[in-house]
Design goal:
The complex is a heterodimer of chains A (about 100) and B (about 475). Chain A has helices at about 5-25, 30-55, 60-90. Chain A is mostly helical and about 100 residues long. In chain A, α1 (about 5-25) runs antiparallel to α2 (about 30-55) and α2 (about 30-55) runs antiparallel to α3. Chain B has a two-stranded antiparallel sheet. With about 475 residues, chain B is mainly alpha-helical. The longest helix of chain B is centred in the middle third of the chain and has 32 residues, at about 150-180. Chain B has one domain (about 5-475). Classes of the chains: A mainly alpha (about 100), B mainly alpha (about 475). The interface between A and B is large, with 45 and 46 residues.
């Protein structure tokens, strides 16, 4: 099967996506942008899980089930994150992470 | 599929209790009647603790191997429930004066405990991840609970972003391990590795798992969140975060690394030893400069994570025993210290060490408990912390002697910053000499933690023997 898709393509894609996500999460100055970057990292995880499921354990569905749970929990995390951002915006009038400097020594 | 519900009795009753507290809080008419919710949860938790102790011998796996019950999980279940009971008992005054929504506070605490229990009882990665997130998300909510307080919100925001980042790294590691080993079940992974199933992806996955769990136990260099979150969170939540979340994460570390990756021991023990050394160094040395007691205790808890990791470096039954013993005594020392902090904050509105001046005259019991807890954390004999450190460090004397020396030196160094607080409490004259009246339940908690710290220091054998049996059974069951 020359030229057909093989698992290494998926691993490279997900590694690239994960790296972009981690770069964004560490370099962005805005809370919402960081949340989006974390979502990108979770997307990379899901690609991995589903691809590994298809190529290595096609008879079991643990990878796909795992991916569904990851998506669900990611939604919960974003919901909580946005709620916190709104509360923070009301109280401190900012979403920039550089302004979160009340707690330090 | 056959589901053995008798193995799930703690989890089911905790879930029911959490939901009942939540519903009761919504049904009860007046705000004032919500104050009874704490007592109600406390009674429920005592019953659940009794049930858990009674089902000590219940062993097996259920839900097709996704969920395990053995002595090891029973031990940590008892630990988390004890910690939760002490936290709720000690925080009654604080909650009544500082926190508006009691029903959400108590039910979220209960769900956080449920998450911990699910996490370390998991037999596969999916259940483990769900338990971990249930715990983490509950703690994020609890951290930002005083939502009119800017500091609390900031702490919650920081915790959310960093916890999200760390669980993404952890998940990526889990997905790589799944790909390399071809299964999500911890036991089957160990079997596949033992058959010589080896893959570079597995090593990358392993490193990411260490990073992800290192964040949860606040080991350096993944500790950056801990001081900010500990300072900003409501004090009882800080206590539970320091104790429960950390102990549960150590349990799951043991479960995953000894359960699945014991064959690859030489690949990860060096890394864990490095984390342990770095945590001890950074935790102890940064604690010197702190003026806020919660921040100081946060750095001290980073150092404690370093000490406990030493037991994992050994990766044998003595090491597991050390981790279990130390986690248990750490519950009493930490909750004792944080209960004093929350009572003082409740009366003076300050967490600064300078405001502890003359505490020995204003509230002798609080001052004594803080003294004993801190000396126990520093590892002064005959307190429990000394015995715990002995059990931990004795395990690596042969292979990692430098780690033992480092631990001993840094423990001595840590006495300095603990005693600085003690000096302020006992030597300095109070600015306001009026006696500081402790709440009755808080006093009870202080007496309990004091008694436990002293008792386990002088007479540690029953707990040590128990931990030993559990560790042997754990390794035999792999």
């Amino acid at each position: 099967m020359a030229g057909a898709l093989n698992p290494s393509y998926f691993v490279v894609l997900s590694a690239a996506l994960f790296t972009i996500g981690i770069y964004g999460a560490l370099s962005k100055k805005n809370a919402i942008a960081v949340l989006i970057s974390i979502e990108l990292m979770l997307g990379a995880v899901n690609i991995n899980l589903v691809a590994f499921n298809k190529y290595f354990t096609p008879e079991a569905f643990s990878g796909q089930i795992f991916a569904i749970f990851v998506i669900t929990v990611a939604a919960v995390e974003v919901g909580l994150g946005l709620a916190l951002i709104i509360a923070l915006c009301r109280r401190r009038n900012t979403t920039a992470l550089d302004d979160l400097d009340w707690l330090k020594w | 599929m056959n589901i053995d519900f008798s193995l799930l009795i703690t989890e089911i009753s905790l879930a029911i209790l959490g939901l009942t507290v939540f519903t009761l809080g919504l049904i009860l008419p007046a705000k004032s009647s919500q104050k009874g919710l704490g007592t109600f949860s406390l009674c429920g938790l005592l019953v659940i603790l009794a049930l858990t102790i009674a089902s000590w011998g219940n062993q097996g796996e259920t839900l097709g191997g996704m969920y395990l019950a053995d002595y090891f999980t029973s031990f940590f279940k008892i630990l988390s429930l004890t910690a939760l009971i002490l936290v709720i008992l000690g925080s009654k005054n604080y909650v009544n004066s500082q926190i508006e929504n009691h029903l959400e506070y108590y039910s979220t605490l209960i769900f956080a405990t449920l998450g911990m229990i699910i996490m370390f009882s998991a037999g596969d990665f999916i259940t483990l991840y769900l338990g971990l997130e249930l715990m983490t998300i509950s703690f994020i909510v609890l951290t930002s609970f005083r939502r009119t307080n800017g500091k609390s919100l900031e702490a919650g925001m920081k915790y959310l972003l960093l916890a999200g980042l760390s669980s993404a790294v952890l998940l990526y590691g889990l997905s790589l391990v799944y790909g390399a080993a071809g299964t999500v079940f911890i036991k089957e992974i160990a079997g596949n590795i033992a058959q010589g199933y080896f893959n570079p992806l597995l090593i990358v996955g392993l490193a990411m798992l260490i990073a992800g769990f290192g964040f949860k136990i606040s080991a350096a260099p993944f500790h950056m969140w801990a001081p900010d979150v500990y300072e900003g969170a409501p004090t009882p939540v800080t206590a539970f975060l320091a104790v429960g979340s950390k102990a549960a994460s150590f349990a799951v570390l043991i479960r995953v690394f000894l359960g699945a990756f014991l064959e690859m021991q030489e690949q990860w023990t060096m890394l864990i030893a490095f984390l342990a050394a770095l945590s001890m160094l950074i935790g102890n040395l940064t604690a010197f400069a702190q003026t806020n007691i919660k921040r100081m205790l946060a750095f001290s808890s980073i150092a404690q994570a370093g000490y406990i990791l030493v037991g994992l470096v050994a990766a044998n039954e003595a090491g597991i025993k050390g981790v279990m013993f130390y986690s248990f005594i750490y519950v009493f020392a930490t909750i004792g210290a944080f209960t004093v902090v929350s009572e003082v904050y409740n009366k003076t509105g300050s967490d600064d060490i300078a405001d502890y001046a003359g505490l020995s005259q204003r509230a002798p019991l609080a001052a004594v408990v803080l003294l004993i807890s801190m000396l126990s954390m520093a590892g002064i004999p005959p307190l429990a912390g000394f015995t715990g450190k002995y059990y931990l460090f004795i395990t690596v004397v042969q292979d990692y002697l430098w780690l033992v020396y480092l631990g001993l030196i840094l423990s001595m160094v840590s006495v300095y910053y603990y005693l600085r607080v003690v000096l302020v409490m006992f030597r300095d004259e109070p600015a306001d000499p009026a006696p500081l009246k402790l709440g009755s339940t808080a006093s009870l908690t202080l007496w309990l933690t004091l008694a436990a710290t002293l008792f386990l220091g002088i007479y540690p054998w029953p707990l040590a023997k128990l931990a030993n049996t559990v560790a042997i059974a754990f390794l035999a069951g792999l």
